[in-house]
Amino acid sequence: MIKAGIIGATGYTGAELVRMLSVHPDVELTVITSRQYEGTPISDVYPALSERCELVCEAFDTKTFCDRVDIAFTALPHKIPMDIVPGLLEGGVRVVDLSADFRFRNVGQYEDWYQPHTAPEISEQAVYGLCELNRDEIRTARVVGNPGCYPTTILLALVPLLKAGIIKADGIISDSKSGVSGAGRGLSLGSHFCEANESFKAYKVDGHRHRPEIEEVLSAAHGADVEITFIPHLIPATRGMLSTIYCTLADGKTEEDARKALAETYDSSHFVRLREKGAVPDILHVQHTNFCDIGLASDPRSGRLVVMSAIDNLLKGASGQAVQNMNIMAGLDEKAGLY
Amino acid sequence: MIKAGIIGATGYTGAELVRMLSVHPDVELTVITSRQYEGTPISDVYPALSERCELVCEAFDTKTFCDRVDIAFTALPHKIPMDIVPGLLEGGVRVVDLSADFRFRNVGQYEDWYQPHTAPEISEQAVYGLCELNRDEIRTARVVGNPGCYPTTILLALVPLLKAGIIKADGIISDSKSGVSGAGRGLSLGSHFCEANESFKAYKVDGHRHRPEIEEVLSAAHGADVEITFIPHLIPATRGMLSTIYCTLADGKTEEDARKALAETYDSSHFVRLREKGAVPDILHVQHTNFCDIGLASDPRSGRLVVMSAIDNLLKGASGQAVQNMNIMAGLDEKAGLY
Amino acid sequence: MIKAGIIGATGYTGAELVRMLSVHPDVELTVITSRQYEGTPISDVYPALSERCELVCEAFDTKTFCDRVDIAFTALPHKIPMDIVPGLLEGGVRVVDLSADFRFRNVGQYEDWYQPHTAPEISEQAVYGLCELNRDEIRTARVVGNPGCYPTTILLALVPLLKAGIIKADGIISDSKSGVSGAGRGLSLGSHFCEANESFKAYKVDGHRHRPEIEEVLSAAHGADVEITFIPHLIPATRGMLSTIYCTLADGKTEEDARKALAETYDSSHFVRLREKGAVPDILHVQHTNFCDIGLASDPRSGRLVVMSAIDNLLKGASGQAVQNMNIMAGLDEKAGLY
Amino acid sequence: MIKAGIIGATGYTGAELVRMLSVHPDVELTVITSRQYEGTPISDVYPALSERCELVCEAFDTKTFCDRVDIAFTALPHKIPMDIVPGLLEGGVRVVDLSADFRFRNVGQYEDWYQPHTAPEISEQAVYGLCELNRDEIRTARVVGNPGCYPTTILLALVPLLKAGIIKADGIISDSKSGVSGAGRGLSLGSHFCEANESFKAYKVDGHRHRPEIEEVLSAAHGADVEITFIPHLIPATRGMLSTIYCTLADGKTEEDARKALAETYDSSHFVRLREKGAVPDILHVQHTNFCDIGLASDPRSGRLVVMSAIDNLLKGASGQAVQNMNIMAGLDEKAGLY
């Protein structure tokens, strides 16, 4: 049995980790921590977890944590993980970090959009945990930077197309939509029921921090800089995320070529489902699962390819992919515990 | 033209008042105040109101307020109105107060559930603004205590039945359900979209402050103490309120007698709609209106009468009824401005 | 491995069965049938099931079905199961029926509310599949009548209280609320998004067919006839059900006595969670699980006990409880496959 | 008083017309027709309309209809209006048609996407009822083709920009999102609550019939053919529509130029509200109103302009704009009856 611990267990992504790991067949969840809820049973914070997890939230202490844990999940606000992770590594613990702190190989990029990085050398060696595309590196990684939710939808859809030369690298637009849980459990007017219900709008139209993350991975896949236009929106639903991505087919390429490239890439990947011609992904089909559904359409007049990609933002977009990363790191069945 | 002002214009009930009064044919909205948003145009706080109301939120000052206003709406948290209203009256302004401060004739009851009252003599002379039942007193009132939302559903349904002796006064249960806007615009975990969406639960099961308000009016109607069991619930919808009220038919009385008593009471009342036999009120039918829909069912085996009563909690349950009260006070058409 | 088949796999309860049984550790799902979708892969009907279940819907044929199945789930409209089940039993197949056809020991009662029964002797010997209360009989049952959703909420809450004499048997009221999926996947104006969204209303106020089912079991528990008032409502949510039940404490009994009686009954029952004093069940806490959450409140003035009981109507209220029944019948861990 | 009639009053757009016209200060609603509900009071079909409109649905008969009506609203499925409208015109009645039958000047385009047109000469002379842009022609029109909902969002946003040469005419993409009411009141699996709730997906990705309507008007504004990519999506909300439109700024043009061009165009148009820099339209702000909110963002790296445009699909996208058209045709205040 792998011994796992969660640092920051009481946000939405932390709670999803608790839910999954507490019944994972190959994992024993040994520690959960929370500053805000120290001393409180997790089932008091999330009554849905009672009879499922009996753990009590602890304060985080590197030494006592590392003594009981093989793999740590850090489900914390950006900036905190880069202070904590070095100690975990010293303590012999491998890490799946759900924040942005270890997603960038180009630390300067991170610093432009977030803040100064206090553990840049770790970030440079960390592995970007997009499971289906980076499996081999993840297997042996000491630190996995678990991808952002928007990047997961866009990168799973576009990386194979760029690599195979099916689409042009310029002029890509992603019109993306997320359920409200993506904003977390913290209180804000935008997450107030009466403001989000029956609402639909764009946000962060002047630049969302997931854009540089997406561009770094697309650029690496393309072998040259890729810039995209990225506009996120808020769906009046709790969970789910859909990106509708507009790109231009390379000369002579067709929707069918795109379908083939994706099919080849994901043939043996359980969690990416390619929809057949004419079918569209729906967040309803992926909610409460770790699947990413990808569908295609094209506009012959303009030569545009439309790629639609849907996930559950809390699972494949966060905690589900984190568990999948742990499964890969630990040599388990990639699907273990991900029902 | 009546000159109206709103003290506390930026909560949900305040904003509804602005929305209605800014197009009311017989009213000029002259002042709106807000502590939090002093100096900010209301249309910045509520973009829905732009091109509808150009007013800027002011700090409240008794003198300058009274100079420009005939009737004031106080849409403030409990406790503040009792400090402000005496000054408004001295300034010659009539008041519709949307808080609980002036709903009780029995000030002791208020003090048991809220806090010490600093203007008890005003409260004792204020009129309870349940329009359909207290029209005559409202006409000449200087201060109207605008009813709570739950009380409005229950009292409009039960007072005529109690007065006509159709139902027994004991054993009444109201299982009531409210949209989330009833909790206001303030931030709380219970109003977080991800906690309220796809949720349904009871709350304040150990005693909600609307219960004494309901009981005072029922007792007055019955001529003796009436005690009810009252359990409120939260509906995953923005607006709307439904009370399902269980009572016992008096000996020899029938559902048809109840229907007749209600029909007679509300025959000439535009805003109370009695549903015919077999039809049920639905919050969908009253949303964005000032109507109260009442329906009846009965269980012949137990002699129980089931009364269902639906309103929009922000309109007939708050701001709509407040405007209706103003219309009555000012001798206008009761429906004016209430489309 | 138990071989299981589902007759009627394409309604909401059928699809939930497919979802669970396709990853159940001790079960092989061998056959699924559908008249409407014969020849269609279930993953075309429910794209959410792709990569999870590769089965194709078949027409139902008793012989070929029985050859491949140990336990059958009949997820069909009332009336069809009573024609099919005799053949299944002859074929040596045990049955969990999700319709009302085998819920009644008193077949006359069934016939009053549904239609003439064509297999009354089977119905009389069938076991009512309320797992926590009828475990022993279920273990050896050939036919289990899987309880209705409303009955599950009410009976799990009240049977222990009645048996222990904590509450009086008369005057019980259940104000119950269900998510829209309870009405099934068939098209109707009431299930149209624009009619159900932001809506809340009672329905079937003149008598819902779950009432006699509830009363039969309560009466058996009490040892004398019990009649209840039962008013169902529709919640604008997909899944979840809450019953708020009003009863009267027996002389000298308290809320604490009720809590003890429930705690003793469900002490070793994983799927019933008793909420502590002051906590209320929320459908959000049980969605996508097989749990039933029960909470208590009381009104000392009236001697009333308020019992709140929440489930996911598609799981503990239908398919989850059906799997639990199968687990018990097959001698498996009661929780197997019910994550 | 203008005498108005509605042909097809029982769909969602018909009901909205009834709601508005029954309290319109300058209009008497004299006739409503419905094939399905002939003889039924509209308030039985829509209980929300009781005490608001006492009319009973009639069968449509040209003669008796024309005798009582000055202006007709045809709120019917495509194809029916082209059979009915010629008779209305002969009867001296002016028409606002809410179907697509009279939206196209190029009848061949209509016939490519819908069906053969039986009144092409009327269609060629009809006026496209985009109020803010075609006011003068609408004033004297005998037949107004009321715009589609998606076209309204896109055309109000883009026509001024194209005319002023702020954006390039090629490469325009509209990623559009609509509330479920856009699909009408007819029953379909896609409008089933459990399929639409908590769902989000694209639809008609191979070509939606609003695209040629949009392109015809854009082409006329541009003076040359304009082709767009248009992908509609479904929002899990009853009402509201948002288009996020991606276009390319013409050489040397800026977001500020775009803002100025829109401001000049809509300066005296009450119902188009231009959001200031940084603010985004939200369907919540326009629900239950006739406003269209437009916001702008730009991506300096790519030279892209992002135009966001929000309406209530049933009001500015259908019945509200129809009433606005009637107001213009009848020389009334454009805002009359549109609160």
UniProtKB/TrEMBL annotation, chains A, B, C, D:
One of its GO terms (biological process) is L-arginine biosynthetic process. CDD domains: AGPR_1_C, AGPR_1_N. The keyword Oxidoreductase applies. It catalyses: N-acetyl-L-glutamate 5-semialdehyde + phosphate + NADP(+) = N-acetyl-L-glutamyl 5-phosphate + NADPH + H(+). PANTHER family: N-ACETYL-GAMMA-GLUTAMYL-PHOSPHATE REDUCTASE, CHLOROPLASTIC-RELATED, N-ACETYL-GAMMA-GLUTAMYL-PHOSPHATE REDUCTASE, CHLOROPLASTIC-RELATED-RELATED. NCBIfam families: argC (TIGR01850). This is N-acetyl-gamma-glutamyl-phosphate reductase. It comes from Desulfoluna spongiiphila.
